[in-house]
Amino acid sequence: MYSIIVHGGVGAVSHDKEEAVIAGVRGAVKAGSDVLASSGSSLDAVETAIKILEDNPLFNCGTGSVLTFDGEVEMDAAVAYGPALGFGAIAGIKNIQHPISLARMVMEKTDHVLLQGSGAQEFARMMGIAPHNPITEERRVQWREYREKFLRGDAGDWPKLKALMKEHPEFMHGTVGAVAVDEKGEVTAGTSTGGVFLKLLGRVGDTPLPGAGTYATKFGGASSTGLGESMMRTLITKTACDFMRMGLDAQGASSGAVNMLSNILRTEAGIIVVDNQGGVGFAQNTPQMAHAYFKKGMSEPVAGL
Ligand code: ASP
Question: Rounded to whole angstroms, how far apart are CA atoms 240 and 281?
């Protein structure tokens, strides 16, 4: 029984972009489910789905990633392969098209779990990955606007930045994730992001950290979105996987994990989860989280905000 679910980040989607965002997650989940339908692995399905979202400038990952305070793009990505507790991740990578594929290479071609900064950049070069500029004009315009506000004192440090995020929920919008289980019952989770607008150079979010933004075990897998600093402190995806080890299904695990975070920290959070029986689940404490899923036997994916 295979299934796959993707998310396109928590945070409000402006009206004029709703259709395109829903079409984006639907297209990604369809491509991932096609891999699973032709007996492909959950690992291939997750990578396929996330690469499509990384190429879609509407989402905050790959091309279209948000800019740091200094006007750069520094991307984080991770892949978690449940059966072997496999994990590969990169942090602070610039100038490549598909961070998720590089994260997979870290898992498959090195003895490490996480490469960051210039070392990750050098690894990409060694792997023969061509340079690619992920900065779009639309993000550059947003960056100028937010940075001006910040410099006027609207957001002078992290607490103020949080207030600015409340005013502009699109700050948080667009990290992507995918979680799949294949016919063999093997679960993979992946997440890719540009992080959060105006982050300090060198800031690493939850996405590439095991158990924070991304995690998978033989019982299930999860990918989260929202303020990364809170995911790191609560280990939200590890919590969801622990719930599945204790017998909850994917929906129970996702609701339980988001409730746990909301009760403690009250910051924005969303999660997608798949269990090894083919169950899918998602939960968020925000009004919207773009998502789509497909389970074997369905004729079309379900997609929404
Ligand atoms: N979790 C991401 C980060 O903090 C942001 C997001 O999910 O939108 O890097």
Answer: 11
